[in-house]
Amino acid sequence: MSEQIRVAVDAMGGDNAPGEIVRGAVKAANSRRDIRIILIGRQEAIDRELAKYTYSKEQIQVVHASQVIETAEPPVAAIRSKKDSSIVVGMNMVKRQEADAFVSAGSTGAVLVGGQVIVGRIKGIERPPLASLIPTRKGVTLLLDCGANVDARPSHMVQFARMGSIYMENVMGVSHPRVGIVNIGAEEEKGNALVKETFPLLKECKDLNFTGSVEARDIPFGACDVAVSEAFAGNIVLKMYEGTASALLGVLKKSMMSGVRSRLGALLLKPALKRSLKAFDASRYGGAPLLGLKGLVVKTHGSSKAVEIENSIIQCVQFKEQRINEKIKEHIASENLNA
Questions:
Q1: Which is it for the CA torsion 131, 132, 138, 139, positive or negative?
Q2: Distance CA 136, CA 222 (A)
Q3: What b/e string do you get for 209-235 counting C-beta neighbours within 10 Å, with b at 16 or more?
Q4: How does pLDDT run across 100-127, given as a tens digit for each residue?
Q5: SS3 string of 228-260?
Q6: What is this enzyme's class at the first EC digit (predicted)?
Q7: What are the tens digits of pLDDT across the range 325-335?
Q8: What torsion, rounded to 10 degrees, do the Cα atoms 81, 84, 90, 93 define?
Q9: How far is CA 294 from CA 3, 123, 181, 289, in A?
Q10: Greatest CA separation found in the chain?
Q11: Tens digits of per-residue pLDDT, 275-302?
Q12: Which residues neighbour 259 within 8 Å (Cβ) at sequence distance 6 or greater?
């Protein structure tokens, strides 16, 4: 058997913990022999959930953590005071290299703070962005930053573009990924001060395939492979994207069930419809990695079900196998030498 990737999972984080978290972990372990999962949280609760499934005992272990960081808690204070929380214990395992990655559906603020304070940034990285894969008509686009840095600087945005390109090329197999900056128009002179300052810097980057501005409405059509933004606008794009997809699905289901003829038509369309909807299901791509840290930290939705947890764990394997952190380090080092 090939070397196993050790993925620590916050079993207590999220709206559906620990049930869906444990279920997703078991599904991941049963689908891949190259994964060893470390479930972190209250032992009794985790063991109760594990008892429902059949799995390789060698692939899943439990590490007890007596505390839980709740979503509403101030992140910095929680990280400092709750040393035995599932998030802090998991982050420390990554820091000590006892785990290759950490996955959590818990408090976003605590994950962001813990990632920077406990795991730490790669030397030369100014701000680690959250990078989320979103489905498009042509495949997927990596949107970053989508939640970590609401007050980014132009130099941060350039690093986002570089790290996003490395991720798309090596994890998603996109050759020379097209980089776009999220803007309110296609023209170079449009945008706020941050966008206007960042645009010429991205144009000067010979290592990037920068294609200019991209409007939010063009992202679902695959206008670029890497969409660069500061976290405020990025998070709005992401949440609007998710909400619109959910609303359209609800309207579609209601229309198909509205009468006998609609039901018959829906029956005929069902196979093609399932394929189309699956292509636009963001959960199949896992969570959002916090790029630029010394170890891998992945944040999934607070409402994550088992399928997103499973895919987030598998995503960690691809990240590790493709040596994304090492490539980011190499890239940043060469960038500093050329500065």
A1: positive
A2: 5
A3: bbbbbbebebbbeebbbbbbbbbebbb
A4: 999 999 999 999 999 999 999 999 999 9
A5: ECCHHHHHHHHHHHHHHHHHHHHHHHHHHCCCH
A6: transferase
A7: 999 988 876 66
A8: 100
A9: 20, 9, 26, 12
A10: 68
A11: 666 656 656 677 899 999 999 999 998 8
A12: none
Q: For the chain, percent helix, then strand, then coil, each to nearest 5?
A: 50, 20, 35
Whole-angstrom distance, CA of residue 45 vs CA of residue 43: 6
Residue 239 burial (CB count, 10 A)? 12
Bridge partner list, 6: 36
Answer yes or no: are the C-beta atoms of 104 and 18 closer than 8 Å. Answer: no
Contact 50, 26 (CB under 8 A): yes
Q: Where are the beta strands (DSSP E) in 238-339?
A: 288-289, 296-299
Amino acid at 107: S
Q: Where are the alpha helices (DSSP H) in 82-213?
A: 86-95, 108-114, 154-170, 193-204
141 to each of 2, 271, 282, how far by Cα in Å? Answer: 31, 25, 11
Q: Answer whether 53's CB lies under 8 Å from 59's CB.
A: no
Structure tokens that stand for 324 in this block = 């994304």
Q: How far apart are CA 204 and CA 155, in angstroms?
A: 12
d(Cα 219, Cα 24) in Å, to the nearest integer? Answer: 29
284 phi/psi in degrees, rounded to 5: -70, -15
Tokens of 187: 């023209």
CA atoms of 314 and 325, how far apart (whole Å): 17
| Mean pLDDT across 188-198 | 91
Q: And the tokens for 320?
A: 């590790």
* Residue in the structure block whose two tokens are 């990632």: 115
Q: Average per-residue pLDDT in the chain?
A: 89
Q: What is the pLDDT of residue 101?
A: 96
